[in-house]
Design goal:
Number of domains: 2
Strand order of the largest sheet: 2-3-8-5-7-6
Strand content: 15-25%
Order of helices and strands: HHEHEEEEHEEHEHEHEHHHHEHEEEHHH
Distance between the termini: 33 Å
Helix content: 40-55%
C-alpha cells in the first residue's frame, strides 16, 4: 500500500487560500525581479567598465618588467615582445596581444608646455577594438604605419598648447639610459574620449618612431597588453603566463594594474550583495508568515490527519512541499515579469547623461559610459534562482516542524 501523494496534496493546499498564496508568490516574484535586474545591471556595467579600462592601455592582463608597476620607468622594458605575444595567444588563450610603450612626457609647442601620458602603439597591431583612445578621433587622421613622424593629442591638451593639425609639437622624455631626449612631429590627429584626465594629457606616438627616440631595440616595449574574451579569466591567464614568461617579467591582471578601479568595483559589489541580502530577508519573512499562519489555522485539520494515520514526518514533508511549490511559483512569476524589462534594458539601456553632465564622468581614471545596459552572467542567474528556492524551503522548516509536533487529541479539540 502506497502512502499519500504529498506533492499533489501540497499543491492543492495552496489553492485553499488563493489570496494569501497570490500575495506570497507576488513577493517572491518581486524579489526575483529586483535581484535579477540589479545583478544584471551590475554584471554588464562592471564588465563593460573593465573592458573599457583594458582598452585604455594595459589590456585585461599586462606583461611588463617585474619592477615597472612599483617604479614606472622607460628604462624598464620587455626586451622582445614577440615571444610574449605568442605565449599569450597559446597559453592564455588570448584573443589579441599588442606591444605598447607607456610613460610620461613633457609636450611643448611655441606657446606652452604640458605634462602628458605617453602611449606608443603599432597601427598594424592596434585599432579601436584594442585601443579605445582611437575611437575618439575628432580631427585629422590616425597613424598609417608604426614609423610615422606625426603625433596625436588629446583635445583639451591641443587647445591648451594652442596647436592645430599640421603644427609642430616637441615631446621630451627620458630614454632607455635614463637620459633626457626629445622627439618632434607634426600634429596629425586630435582625439577626445570624454575623460577629462585623458583629453587634457594624452600623447600618442607611432611605436617605431618612439623606439628610435628612446634608443629601444626593434621589438622592445614597456609592456604587452593582452586581451581576453572574458575579463573574469584574467587571474587564470596571468597565473598561466607567469609560469612561462621567464625571469625579469611578470604578468599582472587589470585589478593589479588598476587597484583604484578594483577597489571601486569591490565596494559597489559589496553594496549590491547587502541589498540582495535585504531582498532575501523580505522574501523569507513573507514566506515564513504565510506558512506559519497556515499551519496555525489548520491545526485541527492536522490533528484529524494524524488520527487517521498520517505520521508526523508526513505532515512535516507536506508543509515543506507547500513552501517548495510557493518558491517555484514565485520564480515562474518572477521570470515572466522580468523577461520583458530585461530584454528592453539589454537592447536600449538607460541614458544617465543628465546625471553625469556634458563633460562626462571619470572613475579611477576610466571614462564612465552614461548609457548603461543590463546583461547577467548565466551563473549568477542560476545562483539567484537556487538561493531563492533554498530560502523558501529553509524558511518553511520551522512551520513544518510546528505541524509535525502537534498532539492529535489536543489539536482536534481546537475550534
Amino acid at each position: 500500500m502506497t502512502g499519500p501523494n504529498l506533492r499533489t496534496m501540497a499543491w492543492r493546499n495552496l489553492g485553499r487560500n488563493r489570496r494569501r498564496t497570490a500575495i506570497t508568490v507576488a513577493s517572491i516574484a518581486l524579489g526575483a525581479f529586483l535581484a535579477v535586474l540589479f545583478t544584471a545591471l551590475q554584471d554588464r556595467s562592471f564588465a563593460d567598465f573593465i573592458d573599457t579600462a583594458a582598452r585604455l592601455g594595459g589590456g585585461h592582463v599586462t606583461v611588463q618588467h617585474v619592477g615597472y608597476l612599483d617604479t614606472p620607468s622607460l628604462t624598464r622594458t620587455v626586451g622582445d615582445v614577440e615571444p610574449v605575444q605568442r605565449l599569450a595567444l597559446k597559453r592564455a588563450h588570448a584573443r589579441h596581444a599588442a606591444p605598447r610603450i607607456t610613460g610620461q612626457a613633457l609636450v611643448a609647442s611655441a606657446d606652452d608646455n604640458v605634462g602628458a601620458m605617453l602611449v606608443g602603439y603599432d597601427p598594424a597591431q592596434d585599432g579601436p577594438h584594442t585601443l579605445g583612445l582611437l575611437e575618439g578621433l575628432r580631427a585629422g587622421r590616425l597613424f598609417a604605419t608604426a614609423h610615422d613622424d606625426g603625433v596625436i593629442l588629446g583635445k583639451t591638451l591641443a587647445e591648451r598648447l594652442r596647436v592645430n593639425i599640421g603644427d609642430r609639437v616637441v615631446y621630451t622624455l627620458t630614454d632607455k639610459q635614463g637620459e633626457l631626449t626629445s622627439g618632434m612631429g607634426r600634429l596629425v590627429g586630435i582625439v577626445s574620449v570624454g575623460t577629462p584626465s585623458l583629453d587634457g594629457g594624452l600623447l600618442l606616438v607611432p611605436i617605431d618612431t618612439l623606439r628610435r627616440v628612446l634608443g629601444y631595440g626593434p621589438r622592445e616595449a614597456t609592456m604587452v597588453a593582452i586581451f581576453l574574451a572574458d575579463s573574469r579569466s584574467s587571474s587564470r591567464a596571468a597565473a598561466q603566463l607567469n609560469r612561462h614568461v621567464g625571469p625579469g617579467l611578470k604578468a599582472l591582471t587589470w585589478s593589479e594594474v588598476r587597484p583604484e578601479l578594483n577597489a571601486f568595483i569591490a565596494m559597489k559589489v559589496g553594496g549590491a550583495r547587502f541589498m540582495e541580502l535585504v531582498i532575501l530577508a523580505l522574501i523569507a519573512a513573507g514566506i515564513f508568515n504565510t506558512l506559519l499562519v497556515s499551519v496555525m489555522e489548520r491545526a485541527r485539520e492536522f490533528g484529524i490527519m494524524m488520527a487517521i494515520g498520517f505520521s508526523r514526518g508526513q505532515l512535516f514533508r507536506l508543509v515543506v512541499w507547500e513552501s517548495l511549490w510557493l518558491g517555484l511559483l514565485g520564480l515562474l512569476a518572477g521570470g515572466l515579469a522580468t523577461v520583458g524589462p530585461y530584454f528592453y534594458l539589454a537592447r536600449n539601456g538607460v541614458d544617465l547623461s543628465t546625471m553625469t553632465g556634458s563633460g562626462g564622468a571619470e572613475i579611477a581614471g576610466v571614462g564612465f559610459d552614461p548609457h548603461v545596459r543590463v546583461g547577467i552572467f548565466p551563473e549568477n542567474l542560476v545562483a539567484i534562482a537556487v538561493i531563492i528556492l533554498l530560502v523558501t524551503v529553509v524558511t518553511g522548516l520551522y512551520p513544518a516542524g510546528r505541524a509535525g509536533r502537534l498532539e492529535p487529541v489536543a489539536a482536534i479539540k481546537l475550534v
